[in-house]
Amino acid sequence: MDGLLDIRREILRNVILCQALEPLARRQRLEAVAAGPKLEYFLVAGVNSAWPFYDLADRVLTARRQPECIYDLAYEAQSVSVRNRYGGKVNFGQISLLVPLITAQVLDYLESGTHEDVDAILARTGDVLRHTTEQDVEHLERFVHLGYEVSARNRARIGTPKPPRSPVFQGRFANVWEACRDLEQMIIGQEMIQGYPHSLRVYRFLLHNLDGGILPASALITQLLLAELRRPDVVADLVAVGIYLVLTKHPESVLFT
């Protein structure tokens, strides 16, 4: 690791910040819904789940290529995200999107020596998904099942029980790309297959609206995407990834004015 940058620490910092800043940008909306997830659930989940992304970066750096398995760390991130909190799988989508993105980021760093080329990172995510293995598919299935279990436990606690789903990926798909293609009707599946178009849109919007600070800009793009997608949970995931990309591209810029 060079003396100027430890990309693992940079990724750890940015994963924590993007997952904390996104819910802060919609704090009023969260606090207006008494029965909904609380702001602190998102903050705690974001901090809890960040260290597996440090481990992911370290694994790629050590292998100097894409490792045989990366999705066990998605499972770990989801597993630890529930420490010290109630609430459901509040950052499941963010974990889903960040695993291939950060893998692509570190691979690009190994080749180019830079870690902030957003277009290059996003262009590489498809190759990351295609180069995953059957071992990744196994852990993807565990990750998805765990998400449904976390959600079911939360629903039971608040009195709206719903049994968890158990989709099967093992034996059906050779890699995570194929599994995402099967889930393409879901917005997150589309996002990954299509190279993160909504996340890139959020990133570009934020860059052009930072004069008033990143939180007001995030709140505005959230409203715009909600009108289009009508899925608050998915919009939150996309905005978090967009914030991650801003932090990646502009690690020293003033974002709070």
Explain how this protein is built.
- This protein is mainly alpha-helical.
- It has one domain (7-194).
- It is 68% helix and 0% strand.
- It contains 13 helices and no strands.
- The protein has helices at 7-25, 27-32, 39-48, 51-63, 72-80, 92-112, 118-130, 134-158, 176-182, 187-193, 197-207, 214-229, 232-249.
- Helix 12 runs antiparallel to helix 13.
- The longest helix is centred in the middle third of the chain and has 25 residues, at 134-158.
- It is globular, with a radius of gyration of 17 Å.
Integer-rounded radius of gyration: 17 Å
Main sheet attributes: strand count, strand direction, barrel closure: none
What is the strand content?
under 5%
Q: Structural class of the helix and strand makeup?
A: mainly alpha
- How many β strands by DSSP? 0
C-alpha termini separation: 33 Å
Low-confidence blocks of residues:
none
> Can you tell me the number of structural domains?
1
The residue fraction in helices comes out at: 55-70%
Mean pLDDT: 92
Molecular shape: globular
Give the number of helices: 13
The topology string of helices and strands comes to HHHHHHHHHHHHH
Note the topology.
Blueprint: H1 7-25, H2 27-32, H3 39-48, H4 51-63, H5 72-80, H6 92-112, H7 118-130, H8 134-158, H9 176-182, H10 187-193, H11 197-207, H12 214-229, H13 232-249
Helix pairs in contact: 1-3, 1-4, 1-6, 1-12, 1-13, 4-5, 4-6, 5-6, 5-8, 6-7, 6-13, 9-10, 11-13, 12-13
